[in-house]
Amino acid sequence: MHNARTEESSPGLLGDTATRDYSSKLRRFNAFAEQELRQCIASLGLRPGMHVLDAGCGTGEALHWLREQVQPGGEVVGIDLASAHVSAARERARAGTLVLQADLLAAPLESGSFDLIWCVNTINHLRDPRQAILALTALLRPQGRIALGQSCLLPDMFFAWDSRLERLTNEAVRQYYRDRYGLDERDLTAVRSIFGLLQQAQLRNVTARSVLIERVAPLSPATESYIAQTLFRDSWGERLQPYLDEADYRQLSSLCDPDDPGFALRRADFHFLQTFTVVTVQI
Per-domain residue ranges for the chain? Predict the structure, then answer.
């Protein structure tokens, strides 16, 4: 599917367009957090025969997890803006699972089609999250629900042994994103505002539940891949050098370098915490 909103001239808040590709990051996160994501989906009380939309389905791992809950007789549809994500999701999708490329604000779907909309790490990428919520609610059947999922509602704790470097690194990351996308610091608080967002849309019966994704040494391959590649390399790395003084950047680089004796993921005291929050509302 294609519409004017998918053009490069109309990026999302964080630069998202139809050609933006987060595929590797999405796969690593879903492998890392699969257990907790599946638990959250299982807690939603889905039943056979229900129709579910994964809004912002990314590379499609959750499509199968959702489908397990609504079979037999149920239907799961995925939608994502990025063509690379849609291609990946279609490769993973089971027969009978439809995956569309389109903008959430102009989804080519019939009103009143779904019993549940699952939407993870997506709303905070949009310039007008409230408008997106209203567009999603229009797709729900009577008594239908929206489940907004968001990782990192609270800051991650990477260095339980060095709170100073942890603080400086997190501040450097935020400054990098502000500079890259021309944002105000308040624009980056959307990851923490999903509960209020649903209430501001004049929806009621809003509930929230957070789970803690906790990993300690020794780490599984999926956890090590996610932290080393998505966080240490893709989120930090050389991009943070301008935001840290020489000594702090050198220390951070040592902790993040697999070839360095001080590599953080090989420390016996490595302890990683990340939150995942699901906010739900029934229409």
Answer: 4-154+184-213+274-282, 163-182+215-271
